[in-house]
Design brief:
This protein is α+β, with helices and mostly antiparallel strands and 321 residues long. The protein has 13 helices and 11 strands.
């Protein structure tokens, strides 16, 4: 690990003016620093900021501080009762020790687990822009089949963010000039395109302070995660689903996916394929067709396309009983 300056921020304003890399739990960043994948010159410790509460909002939703540990969020009675898909996603996300340290804001910003991103001897446009991508044509079993580009096929690893996208979360931030932003999670992440190193719309020094959830959705909630082993493994395919069935037809649907793209993936065409229709194999196949219309495998990860189809259909069967 290379040398770096360390500064502890006592206020949000001090943190945003510190001109450094924010660190809270450090469950991702410290690993990257040990491998010299990331070499920040200054770490700004935000772990003591007053951002670790969960409060009810006037609209019936929740405001979640950016420093709330994943364990606390997963176990909060309001989350367990009203946002089951989020609680389940968090519990599926990592070991208990990691959940105790990992923060809500840090979870949203964790970086890809692509093997070539972690290997500094390999070419990686996300780590070293313009160097190339050894994952394309390499061993890419865990990597993306949706939203990729010729520059990058990395996946976003978060389980929590997939559930947050299905729940239409809003990310609240503050900049150094005091300006606050409310960013829909649908607009928060960026596709790789020609600049895979730019992963979100955050500006330099902009700090996530809260995540807001709208009022609890109607219907049944499910989080299904397919992975290589039952514990402490990233998703090959995951689905966060919320569906309400009324009078024998799907009245509303929210479906987000992990393990398939460079961001928590959601395509309105998937939901449109089943809303207003009676639950059936035909309707579920149409939703899978919409999801995978632009899917592209790169060799080792070709299996993800049929796996995603089967996982989505199984999840829709659960959600619609």
């Amino acid at each position: 690990m290379k040398t770096f300056d360390y500064q502890r921020a006592d206020t949000i304003e001090a943190a945003t003016h510190a001109n450094g890399r924010f660190i809270a739990g450090g469950t991702n960043l410290l690993d990257l620093m040990k491998l010299q994948v990331e070499t920040p010159e200054r770490l700004v410790d935000i772990s003591r900021l007053d951002l670790n509460g969960i409060e009810e909002r006037e609209d019936g939703g929740l405001s979640i501080g950016a420093l709330v540990p994943n364990s606390d969020l997963a176990a909060d009675p309001r989350v367990v009762e009203k946002y089951e898909v989020l609680s389940r996603a968090l519990l599926a996300g990592a070991s208990g020790q990691l959940r105790n340290k990992a923060s809500t804001g840090g979870n949203l910003l964790q970086r890809t687990r692509c093997y070539y991103f972690y290997d500094t001897a390999s070419r990686c446009n996300k780590r070293a822009p313009g160097s190339g991508c050894d994952a394309i044509g390499g061993f890419n079993r865990i990597l993306a089949v949706l939203g990729t580009s010729e520059q990058c096929i990395a996946t976003h690893p978060s389980d929590m963010a997939v559930a947050m996208r299905a729940l239409d979360a809003t990310i609240v931030t503050q900049k150094a000039d005091g300006d606050k932003r409310r960013i829909s999670i649908h607009d928060f992440y960026r596709l790789p395109g020609d600049t895979p190193q730019i992963e979100t719309v955050l500006d330099a020094g902009e700090l996530i302070t809260h995540v807001e959830l709208p009022a609890p959705p109607a219907g049944k909630q499910v989080y299904r995660k397919v992975r290589d082993r039952a514990s402490y493994a990233f998703a090959l395919v995951s689905v966060a689903g919320v569906i309400e069935v009324k009078d024998g037809v799907v009245a509303s649907a929210a479906l987000a996916f992990g393990g398939l793209g460079p961001m928590p993936w959601r395509n309105p065409a998937v939901e449109a394929a089943i809303v207003g229709r009676a639950p059936s194999t035909e309707a579920f196949e149409a939703a899978a067709d919409a999801l995978l219309a632009d899917a592209k495998g790169y060799g080792s990860n070709d299996f993800k396309i049929p796996l995603a189809r089967r996982t989505l259909i199984a999840t829709l069967r659960d959600l619609t009983a």
